[in-house]
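Memo to structure team: turn this sequence into structure tokens by end of day. - J.P.
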Amino acid sequence: MDVALKNRKSKIGLFFISCRRFIELGKDTIDGSYLQRIKKETAYIKNTMCEQVNIIDPGEIFNDSDMKRALNLFKTESVDCILCLFHSWSEDNVWIKFLRDSDPNIELIYFYPAKDSISYADCSDDNDFMQFLTDGGLVGSLVGSGSIRKFNRDAKIIVGTIDDVFEEIVEYANLCKIKNILKDSHLCVVPTFNEIMWNTYFNPYRIFQSGPEISFYSYQELKDISEAIDEKEILIYQNELKQKYEMIETVEDEKFKASVRYSLGLDKLMDRYDLDGMTFNDVSTELFESIGLRPGFYPNAINEKLRFVCPEGDLGIALGIYILKLLTKKQVNVIEPFYIDKSRNIFCAGHAGPNDYNDEKSINNVKISIDKRFAKTNFKYAGAPFAWLRIPPGEMTMLHISQIKDEIKVVATKVKSINGPHRIQGYSHSEFQVDEDINFFFEKILKIGTTQHFVVVEGDYIKQLDILSKLCNFNFYTV
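Reply from structure team:
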């Protein structure tokens, strides 16, 4: 998918219902007619949100023809969600037909725009009475809410002044956008699931029901693409790595170039098939027999296209990385918890294989080191280098996704990566704190039932992951 489509603003369709009986009322009043007043409210709502979202406005909705025009426009524009409101009391037949005829796959936000204050003490003159009628959106909202349930439709309910709640509306629209991007995305497994860890297996069809299409590509394709890369491109990236990161061991130039070559090849394989991400079975003997090493670097071109690479053929961590990438645009790292250090109430976690390190905060946390895990083997490039990352310190969201029967299970929690030296040779890693007893923390995770794989990103995104899970029909757990 083109990166511009991933970076686009969310599209919100407006379905603002007004009362056709009131259109002509209030023409001679100081503040204008009913129509002028509701248009003023619409304009204020649009102006509040327009910098952050792409607004698709079919105009005020009074009757069936307005409703049909709106539905056609929403379909043509492929809106991510529809913001629905009653300006005032209104006949509800148009709303009922909208619920009946609109696409149930388009999410609804049902919004009552509360008033900061009421400008009149009583309705003794025509102008105040006209404003009283215009301010009656709560009546319409209550009437309409029953029909939502009668049609068994879901809607995000939001009540408040637009100034108070527009960020909530924008955030929800962005999550609807991510849901739709997932459906249009294309991920791959190279070349197979990891047959030594069956619990990480994920039914591609189950993912396809809610999100990306999945394809499988061979090591041979990676080899062919990588070996066609121009030597100048390899040298440029190799020199960039040398200048940017500390080399802590002597690395043979041939092995360094090979690691660079096949790392660049990962991105070029995604280019060839217009892929949005790859989960790479990097522990298979076949890989080392085919190309002689495990690619050790993570070209930033992958991030620039909002793509990703992750290890071990696990579609669960692939989905987790991709969701967090779309949500945050930040560096996302794969970890598996190694051990608990009870004396410090911390756990150590990390992972070998492809792991992003391109964020500015990671610059001083990366060393170029030998892939110790395979350094003593007889494979062609045994001892090839990789980017050894100590994940930067900070508050983080830790996310897990896996499949149990037909359930896609999403488990999220907050952890804190702490500063410290590189400790675990051959693995990008960190040490993590939690705000409770570390043993109890992992007891809760073990009771939920996961795999060993998690991903972490800087910041707190628990609320957003909960909402997105509901949008995608995933089951959400928090620890």
